[in-house]
Amino acid sequence: MTVTRFAPSPTGYLHVGNLRTALFNWLIARKAGGQFILRLDDTDPERSKPEYADAIKEDLEWLGLDWDRVETQSSRLDRYAAAADTLREKGRFYECFETPTELDLKRKKQLNMGKPPVYDRAGLALSAEEKAALRAERPGHWRFLLEHERIEWVDGILGDISIDAASVSDPVLIRGDGQVLYTIASVVDDTEMGITDVVRGSDHVTNTATQIQIIEALGGVVPRFAHHSLLTGPQGEALSKRLGTLALRDLREKGVEPLALLSLMARLGSSDPVELRSSHAELIEGFDISRFGAAPTKFDAEDLYPLTARYLHELPLDAVAGEVSELGVPSELAEPFWNVVRANITTRADMAGWWDVLHNGAEPLIDPEDAEFIEQALAMLPELPFDQTTWSSWTAAVKAETGRKGKGLFMPLRKALTGRQRGPEMADFLPLMQAKPRL
Ligand code: GLU
Fold first, then answer.
1. Domain range holding 179?
2. Fewer CB under 10 Å: which end of the chain, C or N?
3. Could you identify the atom of ligand 1 that is nearest to the CA of residue 41?
4. Which residues contact 1 (CB under 8 A, 6 or more apart)?
5. Which residue has a Cα nearest atom 6 of ligand 1?
6. 341 neighbors 351 (Cβ within 8 angstroms)
7. Is 211 in the pocket of ligand 1 (CB under 6 A)?
8. Are residues 339 and 190 in the same domain?
């Protein structure tokens, strides 16, 4: 069975970059009829916060990305300790004592000599006495001993990958303070939870190389890997600094519709065009990870609004009935109100503006050269309530009286009655008017 996972650290809010990872893993699991696990990578006790874990769940629920179960790394520390013991027994784990400053110095020296900054394995050469002496001064951290060979896999997005293990530092798996690090925790979880497919950002490619060796050392089955490209801003600029402003909850707050966001993310960076989907089933149907490319993917949050507008345009009243009624729209007007506004809003919040215009009367938009004409026309406007014929009979009468016609007739009248340049069919709009323009 296909099993995927989305493994955020609960140290902040999810943003569009994380969403890509979550969505791809969710789509793969759902398409295969498999399982999708939400795994909280919370081994960092300082930075992990329960409120972020709750926020992650809330954001995924908003998007309709449901999970089959939740796993937390903090409750599996004994499993990681057992794996560390196995690696020790196999001679693949060694203790090191360099401080961060010493490591930094080593790296700088290597770079100055034109060498790659790969850890020199000094820890491996320490005698038992030297280690005991060092241990008395400071706690040791533990590194995995890589085998210096090429590590290869066929990546679901990047294709054939081959990394020389000798070009990578032996990864630290356990810190001096005993904190288990992501690299080993993730491997143990992926192996023990039977994860078959791992999709994550291309910033993890080197991790994957080392993780493959750790999985093999632990006797596990290596999953299929796919690394999606990282998102950039519309100009190709790095998005990392701006991701804070692209939190999923901010987009929700701004009125972006879940299916607009998912439709964009399910296609952006692939060779298929972005298509607005009206259900999760359609998203699943149209997804194919092999269509994605390695090039950085440009993301522009502005693209979400036309998609949101199109999504709303297609919605039946049922989907918004609660909000329409909360605005105070009487139930008998709900259907015609929705039909009039849905093609003229970008987000749901825009409905309120239209109801205000209909209910309280518009703040008219009148160009100075139309002032007299509008005064004349409004004087000819019949008493409320209006019906389906009011617009045509009134404009015909105004035309006869003033001689204006076409755009010169209709545009100023629209602007006076709605307070806006653009909007619904006026014949449909007038029967909903509860008040004349506020002059
Ligand atoms: N917690 C890791 C991250 O957010 C998970 C990476 C992975 O998918 O293995 O980067």
1. 68-228
2. N
3. 1
4. 32, 33, 34, 35, 194, 196
5. 7
6. yes
7. no
8. no
Amino acid identity at 337: F
Based on the fold, state whether residues 73 and 213 are members of the same structural domain: yes
Structure pTM? 0.93
Q: Is residue 267 situated within a structural domain?
A: no
Which of 190, 199, 182 has its CA nearest to residue 26? 199
314-323: b or e for each residue (b if 16 or more CB lie within 10 Å)? eeeeeebeee
Q: From CA 116, how far away is CA 103, in angstroms rounded?
A: 13
| Vertex 282: Cα angle to 277 and 287 (nearest 5) | 100
Cα of 33 vs centre of ligand 1, distance in Å, is 23
Can you tell me whether residue 150 is helix, strand or coil?
A: strand
- Convert the pLDDT of each residue in 62-112 to its tens digit: 999 999 999 999 999 999 999 999 999 999 999 999 999 999 999 999 999
How far, in Å, CA of 249 to CA of 266, rounded?
19
- What distance in angstroms lies between residue 53's CA and the mean position of ligand 1's atoms? 14
Q: Tokens representing 323?
A: 């909000």
Domain boundary among 174, 193, 228: 228
Ligand 1: centre distance to CA 171 (Å): 16
Asked whether residue 223 is assigned to any structural domain, the reply reads yes
Residue 296 to residue 102: CA distance in whole angstroms: 35
Q: Is residue 234 part of a domain?
A: no
Of the residues 191, 210, 228, which one is the last residue of a structural domain? 228
Closest CA to 354 of 365, 364, 367, 345: 345
Of 137, 184, 175, which Cα lies nearest the Cα of 46?
175
* 8 Å CB contact between 168 and 206: yes
Number of domains in the chain: 2
The CA 198 to ligand 1 mean position distance, Å, reads: 10
Arithmetic mean of pLDDT, 228-248: 85
Is residue 417 in a domain?
yes
